[in-house]
Amino acid sequence: MNMKIAIVIPVYNHGKTLRDVVSRCIDVCQGFSIANEQEEENAQEISSQDILVIDDGSSDNGLKSIEDLPIQRICHEVNQGKGSALLTAARALKAQGYSHMIALDADAQHYPEDIPSFMEAIRKSPHAFIVGKRDFSVDNIPFSSRFGRKFSKFWMFVQTGYSISDMQSGYRAYNLEALLCLDLKETRYSFEIETLVKAAWSGFAIEEIPIRVYYQKGAERISHFDKIQDNIRISILNTRLTIRALIPIPFRRHVLDVSDASVSLLSPLKSLHILLQQSSPAHLAFSSAIAFFICSLPLLGLQSILLLLSVNTWNLNRLCALLVIPLSWPPVLPALCILVGYRVWNGVWLTQFSMETLYHQFWYRFIDWILGSLVLAPFLGLLMGIIVYFTSYLLNRYYLRGRYEMDK
């Protein structure tokens, strides 16, 4: 893909540090170019015109300190929040033909000299969300930052199965199309957490690169993070995201590579062919077996979160695991589990289906469902793994044989 990258600096009353940050960005960008490995002739020369300062309703007249610098500027008339400022910048840059933006804070906490590391990461993974992992071995790291980092890492793992070390880092690189396709609601600091969670749900890769960080002492540091209001917003957001993660409905997937690269149960052979480009038949079989085993368990809505944790823990093929979820949806599998559970409990098959057996005896059928699920889950998981393995194995051999004959 053709890459055009901008540097974005959201500002809110950072007049004391703004000029230093922008000037250092200009120095870093002079003479630097970024290109895709296959498109060296289309290399982008980064210049000061690719730097955008987005002022989020500042009241300190900080923009006057950079009036003479040849950069882009956008101003919000009133303060709307960091998340809103980043989205405003993303929309404006996409309209100008930019493909990516690198965002860093205006408080001089981040080193503009790390911009080349982000550009290299973008070149290698153009569709990934790239997060700068702050070096917390330096002096003056606030306790709140250390705690917030661990707190957000835990909830990210619960909600997505991803283990991201520094969810709250504001030094990031975004693919603009990927960012703007997410259904984002947050407009302030919680925006950065919501973005990564929904990016993971949508199937985008999330990568971290090490960055330097500088924290000024005590009152010298400029921070607009409200310890009460922003922590309340983050807590409400985590509650909302966790509830959504528990609902056994697949997340909407977004594919930016090619329009024909989506997988679906409606086209199983095509989907397997796409998945075989990522994994071996054995890996696909293991992924589908574990996924179907989990989805068959009587966990009352906890299947999704357990599946996400399993994907990360056992390195399952994420798309393959998510693909088998609809196979466990009602009414077929629960009905089968009820029949088996009734047989195990009573020694005979349930043959009468009426208001009496299904409604008035609901709790008996509920117990039958739990018992039948525990019996069937291992068998169904193994069966799914065997079917996927042999189907993908034969399909893989078919495509390999066709390619060999074409080469001859």
What this model shows, in words?
This protein is an alpha/beta fold. The protein has two domains: 5-246, Spore Coat Polysaccharide Biosynthesis Protein SpsA, Chain A; 268-407, no CATH class. The chain has 14 helices and nine strands. It has helices at residues 15-29, 82-95, 115-124, 143-160, 176-180, 191-201, 229-246, 268-276, 281-296, 303-313, 318-323, 332-346, 355-360, 362-407, and strands at 5-11, 32-34, 44-46, 51-56, 72-76, 100-103, 129-134, 172-175, 206-211. Strands 5-4-1-6-8-7-9 form a seven-stranded mixed beta sheet, with helices on both faces. The longest helix has 46 residues, at 362-407. The chain is elongated and about 85 Å long. The protein starts with a strand and ends with a helix.
What is the name of the CATH class of the largest domain? Alpha Beta
The CATH architecture of the largest domain would be Alpha-Beta Complex
Q: Specify the CATH homologous superfamily of the largest domain.
A: Spore Coat Polysaccharide Biosynthesis Protein SpsA, Chain A
User: Termini distance?
Assistant: 32 Å
Strand order of the largest sheet: 5-4-1-6-8-7-9
**Helical amount among residues, as a percent range?**
40-55%
Total helices: the number is: 14
Largest sheet: 7 strands, mixed
What is the beta-strand fraction? Answer: 5-15%
What best-fitting shape do the alpha-carbon axes yield?
Answer: elongated
Q: Helix- and strand-based class?
A: alpha/beta
CATH fold label of the largest domain: Spore Coat Polysaccharide Biosynthesis Protein SpsA, Chain A
**Average pLDDT rating:** 84
The number of distinct structural domains comes to 2
Would you report the number of β strands? 9
Q: What would you report as the Rg, rounded to the nearest angstrom?
A: 26 Å
List the uncertain runs. 257-261, 403-408
Oligomer: single chain
